Amino acid sequence: MGAVYQQEAHKEYCKHVGKKLILGAIYALLPLALLHSLLFRSIPSQHDDDQDYSIPSSQGLRAFACEPLGVPRRVSLLVLRVACVAKKIEEKGVGLQHCDYSNGDWVASTQGPKYNNTSCKMIRTGQNCLGNGRPDTGYLYWRWQPRECKLNEFDPHLFLKFIEKRHIAFIGDSLARNQLESLLCLLTTVSSPVLKYQYGEDNKFRRWTFDPPYNATISIYWSPFLVKAMDTTQGHNKVYMDSIDKRWASEINTMDMIIFSIGHWFNKPAIFYENGRVLGCHNCGTDNSNHTEVGIFDMMRKVTRAAIDEVSERVYKHREIFVATTTFSPDHFEGAWDKAGACPKVKPYEDGEKEIGYVEREMRRVVVEEVEVAAKVVEEKGRRIRFEILDVMKLASMRPDGHPGHYIHPYVMAKGYKGPFHNDCLHWCLPGPIDAWNEILLELIKRWEHEESLNKGLVRWLD
Ligand SMILES: *[C@@H]1O[C@H](CO)[C@@H](O)[C@H](O)[C@H]1NC(C)=O
Ligand SMILES: *[C@@H]1O[C@H](CO)[C@@H](O)[C@H](O)[C@H]1NC(C)=O
Ligand SMILES: *[C@@H]1O[C@H](CO)[C@@H](O)[C@H](O)[C@H]1NC(C)=O
Ligand SMILES: *[C@@H]1O[C@H](CO)[C@@H](O)[C@H](O)[C@H]1NC(C)=O
């Protein structure tokens, strides 16, 4: 992070808490000042020497209290204490910054998306709903409105500044890729990524960089179980619960931010192994009738924990790293996957119109629980690892209209086309609802940056 940038981030934060802080300081200082004048007016100034009131350096004070204070030093100290309290309150979630982005509504908006099929070249055919001729465009005119705050529009400059000289990695399945491609399209509006490498079947591992002044790196690692897994010819996956997938794990220390996004592969037929024996299977089929069915939620919990542990153990002790896990985003198949109109909705659900399903609730729950525990553990250990939940489950559940459906090929629109109709009611059109995931991601990163810069100010002062 450039020093200039840090100052900017800090300034922005100060603007945000400044008003609250000054008001708080005034209210807190009034009685204290009164008390002070009562106590010290008639008593000789034995407390006036600096020994009892070690005043921090003006630099530290500025960093912490946001304003250079041209007032007597003892009062400065009181202000500092008030600032301490204010920061604590801020951390407890009173402030805007701790807005719960997961709870809200989709509201109609006249402002369309920031990019389209012409301006972004990175949209793959399967998600290019505009390019494939999806006739309705209403799905593009909704914004996510959290209950507690306003979700800022995606600011590509700000995002690029945050990832300046950093490496942000998306790790997971095709929804991780969907989110990554949305992010690339959003960023392409201000700077063009350069593809640095791609390999693997269907280029499942790719890396881009953004040129100076940003020098940022974005990459994607295909790892739908996060642990080692193999396709078999018998049509099921072999998943090794105690072997983390080295293809991403071996590169952890090159990453500054990680976005994990998994879930859907747990619904596929699989045999799960641990410590050299079979734990059980899922969707076992007749081949594996000897194994017991394991709950997919337990498997999801195990791999989430394994990935978090891997990060905690492998990341060098003093490194700063941001790790967000995206919660489950359900599909919206209503009809057969190979008939036209498998997801025919053209509007979001209204709040309460559709109950959130059991699977998505449970998939979300295991992730939230694991990440919350991990966040607490690293905080107690004083590590600089930030674990966050990118909680999109509700946003996603409410958007049956955001999928390509049968507009996964351009020729669906051809005159006289009679099928076959293959439908995708799982991934998201680009542009589409998934762009909001990245707006929320930016807010989580912003919050992390603010707190890191405040902490650094505090550390400087304590030194
Ligand atoms: C696509 O976006 C570009 C750039 O914002 C704009 O000039 C163009 O009119 C858009 N095209 C369509 C079809 O909306
Ligand atoms: C983009 O979509 C429009 C329809 O919205 C279509 O006319 C145009 O050919 C598409 N452009 C590309 C480059 O796919
Ligand atoms: C950005 O990358 C270029 C080329 O890799 C390098 O020459 C330049 O010094 C980098 N800039 C910063 C600010 O790190
Ligand atoms: C199931 O277990 C029995 C007894 O251990 C064994 O003979 C059989 O081959 C197993 N079947 C499969 C499909 O693994």
Automatic annotation (TrEMBL):
Residues 151-443 form the Trichome birefringence-like C-terminal domain. Keywords: Golgi apparatus, Membrane, Signal-anchor, Transmembrane, Transmembrane helix. It is found in: Golgi apparatus membrane. GO terms for cellular component: Golgi membrane. The chain crosses the membrane at residues 21-40. InterPro entries: TBL (IPR029962), TBL_C (IPR026057), TBL_N (IPR025846). One of its GO terms (molecular function) is xylan O-acetyltransferase activity. Its main location: Golgi. Residues 98-150 form the Trichome birefringence-like N-terminal domain. Belongs to the PC-esterase family. TBL subfamily. This is Trichome birefringence-like N-terminal domain-containing protein. The lineage of its organism: Eukaryota, Viridiplantae, Streptophyta, Embryophyta, Tracheophyta.
